[in-house]
Design a protein that fits this description.
- This protein has 366 residues and is α/β, with parallel strands linked by helices.
- The protein folds into two domains: 1-108 and 264-366, Isopropylmalate Dehydrogenase; 123-261, Isopropylmalate Dehydrogenase (3-Layer(aba) Sandwich), CATH 3.40.718.
- Helices cover 39% and strands 20% of the residues.
- It has helices spanning 14-31, 45-51, 57-64, 92-102, 169-185, 200-213, 226-235, 247-259, 299-311, 316-331, 344-347, 355-364, and strands spanning 2-10, 35-40, 68-73, 107-113, 134-140, 150-155, 158-163, 189-194, 220-225, 242-245, 270-272, 278-280, 334-335, 351-352.
- The longest helix has 18 residues, at 14-31.
- The radius of gyration is 20 Å and the shape is globular.
- It binds 3-isopropylmalic acid and magnesium ion.
Length: 366
């Protein structure tokens, strides 16, 4: 197979982690007799520097013309970067939101599972001697507060800011379908997360999710309020299989879910539309504080590349191979700085590895 993809290295640690993901992709594809071509393009802060806007029409068109987009991360340090002196609609994050919207990527899959090799890094106390969870958050990605009307203005002499939260039934139905389909391929358990005790959008969300659920009688569907879900994720993450939720709740819960895996540097993501097209990016940000130091953890991006092979190209064996190589790398003791145990006794047996060494170690284990 020939894979023709767009690639957005982005800002901060983005270019470093994408380089490692390409290294691993090149190695696995060569092993199975496939070829790949990357067309690199700018988005985020680097695009502002080059073109004055975070996302150009050309970049959006380029991404549309390919089968998939592999992305690093975008944005900078809001306290010092000139990008954050621009009006909000011209900042790096606006480029990412416009890209997601422009490509129609309404379903964002964020798997969070605990590698047994990293059980010590899980901040949660062990249950029966150890944690063992494996869940995926399906986050609605092109609606809700992120895309509602917003403004800040003086009303009756008082500065007032407004953000609008709206969902229509079609937006809810399509992402619910994606979540049920994923649940069918996994443990057939779906938790729909909302705030139906307060919000109208959540009450509609719940109604539509249950309507869609009638088409999936094998899936055990339950509802959970978002505040309770935040608590349950730290109390008992083992109870979850698939979680489906709206954009803002999903943003927050997925950071929480990633942290209980030991590091946000482990969490991959796939953003999908109704076809096999997808944008694949780590769930973490651009970490400007460590950019250029060669110490970033590339695993989330490498695992995002594996998701790309699985979801956009149907290359399941190749994706498994990458995931197993990551496991072996961890089992062999390789640890990037974020994964290194704080306890010196536990750290003693580990191999400290920079970004490129992690990429080499994974590629060598395919
Ligand atoms: C994420 C990020 C983005 C989001 C930011 C960078 C706009 O936090 O992908 O989770 O809020 O969606
Ligand atoms: Mg986020």
């Amino acid at each position: 197979m020939h894979l023709d993809i767009a690639c957005i290295p982005g800002d901060g640690i983005g270019p470093e982690i994408v380089e490692q993901a390409k290294k691993v992709l090149n190695a696995v594809l060569a092993k199975y007799g496939h070829t790949i071509e990357y067309t690199d393009t700018l988005m985020g802060g680097c695009s502002i520097d080059a073109y004055g806007v975070p996302l150009t029409e050309e970049t959006l068109e380029l991404c549309r013309s390919k089968n998939a987009v592999l992305m690093g991360s975008i944005g900078g340090d809001a306290k010092v970067s000139p990008w954050y002196k621009l009006e909000p609609s011209r900042r790096p994050e606006a480029g990412l939101l416009a890209l997601r919207k422009g490509l129609g990527l309404y379903a964002n899959l964020r798997p969070a599972y605990l590698f047994k090799e990293l059980a010590d890094s899980c901040p949660l106390a062990g249950k029966d001697g150890g944690r063992n969870f494996d869940l995926v958050i399906v986050r609605e990605l092109t609606g809700g507060l992120y895309f509602g009307e917003r403004y800040t203005k003086e009303i009756d002499g008082v500065m007032t800011a407004v953000d609008t939260l709206s969902y229509n039934e079609n937006e809810i139905r399509r992402v619910a379908k994606t979540a049920f389909e994923i649940a069918m391929k996994r443990g057939k358990k779906l938790t729909s997360v909302d705030k139906a005790n307060v919000l109208d959008t959540s009450r509609l969300w719940r109604k539509i999710v249950h309507e869609v659920g009638e088409e999936y009688p094998e899936v055990e569907l339950s509802d959970m309020l978002v505040d309770n879900c935040a608590m349950q994720l730290v109390k008992d993450p083992e109870q979850f299989d698939v979680i489906v939720t709206e954009n803002m709740f999903g943003d927050i819960l997925s950071d929480e879910a990633s942290m209980i895996t030991g590091s946000i540097g482990m969490l991959s993501s796939a953003s999908l539309n109704e076809s096999s097209f997808g944008l694949y990016e780590p769930s973490h940000g651009s970490a400007p504080d460590i950019a250029g130091k060669g110490i970033a953890n590339p695993i989330a991006t490498v695992l995002s590349a594996a998701m790309m092979l699985r979801y956009s190209f149907g290359l399941n064996e190749e994706a498994d191979d990458i995931e197993n190589a990551v496991k072996k790398t961890l089992a062999d003791g390789y640890r990037s700085a974020d994964l290194m145990p704080a306890d010196p006794e536990k750290a003693a047996g580990m191999i400290g590895a920079g970004c490129a060494e992690m990429g080499d170690a994974i590629a060598a284990r395919l």
